[in-house]
Specification:
- This protein is mostly helical.
- It has two domains: about 90 residues, Tyrosine recombinase, N-terminal domain (DNA polymerase, domain 1), CATH 1.10.150.130; about 180 residues, Orthogonal Bundle (hpI Integrase, Chain A), CATH 1.10.443.
- The strands form two sheets. Strands 3-4-5 form a three-stranded antiparallel beta sheet, with no helix packed on it. Strands 1-2 form a two-stranded antiparallel ribbon.
- The chain is elongated and about 65 Å long.
């Protein structure tokens, strides 16, 4: 797909449309206006905006190569582009996101009165199979949690992060972005701003509270001695805020150290949190609220994991299974 991705500064043809104020808008301005409106209306994360921008840039460049432009493309043009993406090996999930980007963009133009017809109206995104998370067992989690060397400041930090992640089901981006002002240890909760800028309160549990307190009292001051000024709870050896990538590297390292051979993702502990709650009888809507899912159907995937686990246990232990 590399050939389909390109910066806006390489878009040479600038066929324009007239907006509601009577101003001519170039292709670049159309994309910028759309992204601004999308952010204002939905409060989406920067990663989402970046993905939409890349998708529209890729489409824009490809259309130019065909002698067409983004603003006035037809359904057949978009279908040809999707076919080209498929030929170049794009996954169904990537193609589905591109369709979503195009659909939102052209609906925006239609709503603003800049086009008369939506060229994406009859374009369908490819069906995606829902991949069940490879959930860690409770024994796996126990091994992972005790892997860090808590005699060191960094090891104590890592243990606290793993405990919080498993206790709360936070996304890794939410964990590393957690600030001191969002952490309320006396009440045993953290206030998290998730996707769509939606806030939620998530309980920590006694174990996680204990480890965070130990980290804040014994390790964080030492890490902040390097003139760190980070507001984040969890900081690096130089006192800067942690990144998702750095923490993902740590999870993989501790998993190897613990002898866990399962394929892990940055969300493995989040998946384990949800699955283990359901295994122990938690209500699905409670799990939905704790995870910060806006749609219950997103949470329901974990019920399949939990049911599969129960079926395995039944087969292993019931005398007539």
């Amino acid at each position: 797909m590399r050939g389909l991705k390109c910066g806006l500064n390489t878009v040479k043809r600038q066929e324009s449309l007239i907006d509601r104020q009577g101003k001519r808008c170039s292709q670049q301005e159309l994309i910028d206006h759309f992204l601004d409106a999308f952010w204002a209306e939905r409060g989406v994360a920067q990663n989402t905006l970046d993905a939409y921008q890349r998708d529209l840039q890729g489409l824009c460049i490809w259309l130019e190569g065909q002698g067409r432009v983004l603003a006035t493309s037809q359904r057949s043009d978009l279908q040809d582009y999707l076919a080209e993406c498929f030929k170049q090996g794009a996954k169904s999930s990537t193609t589905a996101r591109i369709v979503s980007s195009m659909r939102r963009f052209y609906r925006y133009l239609l709503r603003e009165g800049m086009i008369q017809d939506d060229p994406t109206a009859k374009i369908e995104a490819p069906r995606q199979g829902r991949i069940l998370p490879d959930a860690l067992t409770e024994q796996d989690v126990d091994l992972l949690l005790v892997a860090p060397d808590t005699e060191s400041a960094l090891g104590l930090r890592d243990r606290a992060m793993l405990e919080v992640l498993y206790a709360t089901g936070l996304r890794v981006s939410e964990l590393v972005g957690l600030s001191l002002s969002q952490t309320h240890l006396p009440q045993g909760v953290v206030r998290v701003r998730g996707k769509g800028s939606r806030d939620r309160l998530v309980p920590l549990g006694e174990n996680a509270v204990d480890w965070v307190q130990r980290y804040l009292q014994q390790a964080r001051p030492e890490l902040m001695e390097a003139k760190g000024v980070a507001e984040q709870v969890f900081v690096t050896a130089r006192g800067a805020g942690m990144t998702r990538q750095a923490f993902w590297y740590l999870i993989k390292r501790y998993a190897r150290q613990a002898g866990i051979s399962k394929h892990l993702s940055p969300h493995s502990l989040r998946h384990a949190f949800a699955t283990h709650l359901l295994n122990h009888g938690a209500d699905l809507r409670v799990v939905q609220m704790l995870l910060g899912h806006s749609d219950l159907s997103t949470t329901q995937i974990y019920t399949h994991v939990a049911k599969a686990r129960l079926q395995d246990l039944h087969r292993q232990h019931h005398p007539r299974a």
